[in-house]
Amino acid sequence: MKKQSKGITLIALVITIIVLLILAGITINLTIGQRGILNRAQEAGRNYQEAAKREDEQLTNFLKETDDIIDGLGGQSKPLPENALAKKVEIGDYVAYNPKAGVTDESKLSYTSPVGTGSSHGNGYTDIPEGQTFTVEENTKWRVLSKDETTGEVVLISEAPMHQFGMDGAIGYLYFEQELNEICKIYGYGKGANTSKTFTYETGDTVEGLTKGRITGSGGRSITAEDINKITKYDPSTFTDEFNGIIDRYGDSYTHTIFYPTKATQNGASTSATERTDKFTAYYYQGSEYLTDTTSVIYQILFENGYWVASRGVEARFEGAGFYGFFVAGPYVQPYGLCSGGPDKLVVNDVDDVVVGVRPVVYLKSNIQTSAKDASGAWIISE
Fold it and tell me: Other C-beta atoms within 10 Å of 247: how many?
């Protein structure tokens, strides 16, 4: 009888192993490959999340549109209530705003303006080397500068300039806007003030580069030349001036080699003359040419006193440039030279006779209401 062989041959074993490896590769690829089960599951999860996010956004937009329709067609604001301050007051009315009311952090109610350096803010006024300190004057009277019956916003201005503030030289020019706003913001914390406002200003030299600064957490800032121009409807771009037989126009450019204000030095003056191009942005005008009724309340508020306004300009010409801060002097809005640059040096102008007051403006919350006037005739405010 023949013997029968048992078991498998080597070739069959190798073939079996190869088949098993192929099957394993296919299984692994189906599980974790680029189009595998795990990746497809992750992709499905991402798609679900994106779809859910889109649905949330669509639902949010739908609810907002629904609210807009309910509040007023086309997204218009709700009508102001009849006792809204913005509906009751007229321009020039007195409002019983107390800048100290409800303020628990008394450090907000004062500010010391340092002399400063080119690289650190200040006023450049060395007559008071320890700096100039200002504290809220509680008995200030406030009048309505503007109002908006659509939004409910009312803007107040101090009846008269307050404090006496000196600024000087290159440092005074570089930080002119900041220092005025820092002083005036101390009045923007009282009951009813809109402390969610953000106000911007610029520091530095226009050619070297301006830096944006911000006043936040206060409803107060300094009045600006732009504020007054908006009321008078004066357009600075129409300004022309004649000097030595040459007509200068607002926005004209002049290329010259001069010393100039800079943040790069301790005293704020450049160490050498540099060729640069300056634009003519200084201007002046008489308020009565635009607010022709000089007996009107708004004219009296704006032009009966002298005060700084937080705006700057450059009087550029071929031979040099004057660097100015604006102020109101009697019936005029005009610039005053803090320093001037020529080919030999930067000259600091004497401003001892132009130490004048500041004018804070305060924005009230849009929900301010009133029911009556107090004994002095000022509208009482309530939230």
Answer: 9
Determine whether 302 is exposed, middle or buried from the number of CB atoms within 10 Å of its CB (0-12, 13-18, 19+). buried
SS (H, E, C) the chain: CCCCCCCCCHHHHHHHHHHHHHHHHHHHHHHHCCCCHHHHHHHHHHHHHHHHHHHHHHHHHHHHHHHHHHHCHHHCCCCCCCCEHHHHCCCCCEECCCCCCCCCCHHHHEEEECCCCCCCCCCCCCCCCCCEEEECCCCCCEEEEEECCCCCCEEEEECCCEEEECCCHHHHHHCHHHHHHHHHHHHCCCCCECCCCEEEEEEEECCCEEEEEEEECCCEEECCHHHHHHHHCCCHHHCEEEECCEEEECCCEEEEEECCECCCCCCCECCCCEEEEEECCCCCEEHHHCCCCCCCHHHHHHHCCCEEEEEEEEEEECCEEEEEEEEEECCEEEEEEEEEECCCCEEECCCHHHCEEECEEEEECCCCECCCECCCCCECCEC
Q: What is the pLDDT of residue 35?
A: 63
Q: What is the mean pLDDT of residues 163-187?
A: 96
pLDDT at 163: 93
At residue 32, the pLDDT reads: 65
- The model's pTM is 0.79
Q: Which amino acid is at 250?
A: Y
| pLDDT grade for 18, boundaries at 50, 70 and 90 | confident
Q: What's the sign of the alpha-carbon dihedral 48, 52, 57, 62?
A: positive
Among 232, 201, 231, 227, smallest CA distance to 362 is for 227
